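DATA SHEET
Item: assembly model
Revision: 1
Owner: S.N.
Input lines:
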Amino acid sequence: MWSHVTPRCVQCIKNKSFVRPFHKPSFQGKSSTASQVSNRKQITVGPLQNRISNVLQQWTRSYSAHFTYVPDTVPSSEGETVRMNLFQAVNNAMDIALASDPTAIIFGEDVAFGGVFRCTLNLQEKHGKDRVFNTPLCEQGIAGFGIGAAVAGATVIAEMQFADYIFPAFDQIVNEAAKFRYRCGNEFDCGRLTFRAPCGAVGHGALYHSQSPEAYFAHTPGLKIVMPRGAVKAKGLLLSCIRSNDPCIFFEPKILYRSAVEQVPTRDYELPIGKADILLEGENVTLLGWGTQVHVLREVAQLAQDRLNVTCEVIDLVTIQPWDRETIYNSVVKTGRLVIAHEAPLNCGLGAEIAASVQKECFLNLEAPIQRVTGHDTPFPHVFEPFYIPDKWRCLEAVRAAVEF
Amino acid sequence: MRKVTTINSILRCCSNGKYLPLGCTRPSHKVSPVLPAFSSQLIRIRSYSTVTPEGEDRPEFPGAKSGWTDRLEFVKSDLYDGIPVYRVMDREGKVLQEDEDPKLPEEMIVQMYRSMTLLNTMDKILYESQRQGRISFYMTNYGEEGTHVGSAAALNPDDMVFGQYRESGVLMWRGFTLDNFMNQCYGNELDLGKGRQMPVHYGSKDLGFVTISSPLGTQMPQAVGAAYAFKRAQKGQCVICYFGEGAASEGDAHAAFNFSATLECPIIFFCRNNGYAISTPTSEQYRGDGIAGRGPAYGLLSIRVDGNDTLAVYNATKRAREMAVKENRPVLIEAMTYRIGHHSTSDDSSAYRSVDEVRFWDSTDHPISRLRNYMLNHGWWNDDKEQEWKKKSKTAVMEAFARAEKKLKPDWRLMFTDVYEQMTPDLKQQLQGMEDHLKKYGDHYPLKNYAKSNSPIE
């Protein structure tokens, strides 16, 4: 089984050269429709849903995307692939999970009709109302119900409608799900439990439809936390989370639901949790991000090459907890400089944890202070979003600071 | 001789947390006069009764309020028929019981009608403007105008409002201007919220309307806390808290109901039961007798009203306010209505409900047409007035819209203020960092769309 998605510019990496420009035009601004997907049974979309999908683009349409999406490609040895965007890949993963595991159930707010992001589209029709269903509007209830079902032997996929609304469930997730196995001496566990939650900036989401709360949960031992950068990764990682024997939180960058279009293998596959991906190799600066930010950093690497004549190594952390220390340390040992970028605020963001660990392990290799480019330490603002997010210009300036130190 | 204690008598007395046997004559323990049909229709006495021999001790468990029984009997959830829906008018705007007509003066009724229709016109234009990409998001109030204006008109101006997000009519009644609405939806430099929140997250300290927050149900315990503070201040103020039947499933709703009863707070919980929480119908949201049905269990005075009957909403809220303020008692109003519009501009409700269903409510049972019929019946309104008002209100909305669209966004540096009362050293540093960054990279940012504040940012 292949375990690592090869980035599109793999040939160039192998040749130790850098792709400039990228081989294919980006998919920026291109809205996919379900009709672009081949007529595979599990993702068949009717005309009504097509229309709905178009209307529902509200949350996933980027008015002025702050990044250029770079799709992953998979080798032809992976067999049949289908063009899918991220929400279709998530849908496909859950479809496979339901088909391959009779105990699997999916629930959350508005899940029955397909979910507000269409991730559960057609799953109720296909797998039954007892397996895919609406709950009352109560996140703490969803979390607690999920924990109980997992304790009793079900495989649970619970949807939080937005990551911003996960907080009523904080107690259940932090004090119950995360600690269940430990406090029971492994008599009981709720490992077969996955929370899915759309996260991240979307251009117009403001305080309560934009947050990236991964660091709150990374601070809690017992949870695994994953954030995919695209469709291929999303499918394999979600299947890994669903089948993991530890409770997982799977954050889906909502701006990618439609813009992240890739050829996704149709078969059942899993990708490893805890393994970062080196997307571009470079010599001078390591750029580390996850989710949407990875795509920003790819562009920054290009800008740094063009404007500063430095090569950057771009790494997608993929897993927030447990994070892949080895890959990061090895890269920083090589480059001597690290720029970490995330949408969440600076203070106590995951960047702080990584920076502290890197300075301890790579102290003598560091040529410059570790730079963090993040959202500001304010709530996520509506009309000020262009000034809030860690965009490519702020990241580029951090690269410059690292290089010129 | 055996004394029969019924649920009926418990319901009369439990709302202030004290058990009193049948026959209690204290005024506050009588069945509320706003619930005339309640006691007779509500209870099927035969189905549940507790029997206590005369003179025998009652259960002394802490918190126990009932008698003993020697019958093995489970309380059924269909114990009673359900709280009836109070209404004043039929669908043609004809008053059913003359003494239930609040007999509001003509100018007030006309003003209520103007608010409801102005809201409707504003909704249409802002919904369309979102479709054209001019604002980023919108939520219409179609079909729920009666719950907004009927309740708002029954309050005092210094009462405090905690809303959910679909109560724009309450703000409109209180005096929020079209410019106020438009400026917020555009997040421009005149927006009271300084451009920080998504459209429809209105708020105004002057109008006693606490700024909307997107998370559901969070306002409910907050409203109870505010009511408690009002009780202590003894100025005769009351709090009204709006929420949907979906939000009533949140844990915060339970906390709010329970706190309001135990702490005896002057609050009106106003539930807009519009049938849907985004796509989730009430049948998947709750079982039992809706939201009002929970009231007696928490010790709240409760009533269910026809939310499309603006006068019924007015009467219920008016009476609820009196009881809340005079007796420091929480009151729960469940207004039955129908969300004619989509949940928001992010939603297409044809995915989960039929167009015919929506059309039925829009054409057959709309609060605006019912109040218009009431006015027509009184000779206070006619087609000419309707046409004139339609034209006038549409012009006013379009003009406000154009004014708001021309305005710049607020100074981007306002992103850093109000996180704390005083900007912390960290935030000052981050602000300075952005200033320096923009000196270098300003060409890549939409600075021309943002105003430059004349006053210092701190």
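QC remark: Chain A touches chain B through 49 residues (CB under 8 Å).
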